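Lab manual, section 2.4: Encoding a predicted structure.

Procedure: take the sequence of the chain (118 residues), apply the prediction step described in section 2.3, and record the output as C-alpha cells. A sample record is shown.
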Amino acid sequence: MRYLLLIYNPDRTLSPEELAENMPRWFAYTDALKDSGVYVAGEALQGSGAATTVRVRDGETLITDGPFTETKEILGGFYLIDAPDRETAEHWAARMPNMGFGCVEVRPIMPIPAEVAS
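Recorded output:
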C-alpha cells in the first residue's frame, strides 16, 4: 500500500543557520527511507508565498495567490512511501526531523481499479 506523508511546518522562513543545522537530519531521514525499501518519492515545496490556488466556477477560471486556507502551518513537502500497513507508515512519519515543531499527515493513496482507469 502506498502512503503520502504530508509534512506541515510553521509558516516561516528558516535562517541560513537553521537550514545548515536541519538539512543533514532530513538527508539522513531520506537515506533511512531509501535503505528500508519503502521510499518511492519525496520533494520539498517552496513557501506558501509561491503558491496559487486555481478554481473554476461557472466556466470561469479564478486564480488567487497563496494556499487555499489560512493557517499557521503550511504544507512544506511530502514523501511517497510504499509500506505494508498504516502502522509502518505512521512509524516513518513519527521519525521525521520536524516532529518537535511540525506535524505529518499520513494519507493512504486511493487505488483506482484498472477497469475504471482505462
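Check your result against the sample. Residues 16-36 form the longest helix (21 residues).
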